[in-house]
């Protein structure tokens, strides 16, 4: 299995293979997930002090906060996946 990396802003990168969901931080359930991850030590804040615009949930229950829009992260995910499939 090839490792695919996705830029989530400010030079921060996550493994595309481990991403389960990319969601907006606005709803109460997502805010609760962020709080629980912080308490468990599974929160990764990659916002560099900026407003959180995307919450990335991984298969290891880690939560990654990003300052770029969920649509932008998803677009990068799709573009990277399409370019990777052309190389096979």
Describe the structure in your own words:
- It contains 2 helices and 6 strands; from the N terminus they run βββαβββα.
- The mean pLDDT is 92.
- The chain is α+β, with helices and mostly antiparallel strands and 88 residues long.
- 34% of the residues lie in helices and 31% in strands.
- A 4-stranded mixed β-sheet has the order 3-5-6-4. Strands 1-2 form a two-stranded antiparallel ribbon.
- The two termini are 12 Å apart.
- It has helices at residues 28-40, 70-86; strands at residues 5-9, 12-15, 19-23, 43-46, 54-58, 63-66.
Dominant shape: globular
Please give the number of β-strands: 6
Major sheet: arrangement of strands? 3-5-6-4
Strand content: 25-35%
Number of DSSP helical runs: 2
Mean pLDDT: 92
The percentage helix is 25-40%
Sheet of most strands: 4 strands, mixed
Order of helices and strands: EEEHEEEH
Brief sketch in words of this structure:
The protein has 88 residues and is of the alpha+beta class. 34% of the residues lie in helices and 31% in strands.
């Amino acid at each position: 299995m090839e490792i695919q990396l996705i830029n989530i802003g400010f030079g921060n990168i996550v493994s595309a293979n481990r991403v389960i969901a990319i969601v907006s931080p606005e709803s109460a359930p997502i805010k609760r997930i962020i709080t629980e991850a912080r308490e468990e030590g599974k929160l990764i804040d990659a916002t560099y002090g900026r407003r959180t615009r995307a919450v990335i949930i991984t298969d290891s229950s880690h939560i990654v906060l990003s300052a770029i829009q969920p649509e932008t992260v998803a677009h990068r995910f799709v573009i990277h996946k399409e370019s990777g499939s052309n190389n096979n």
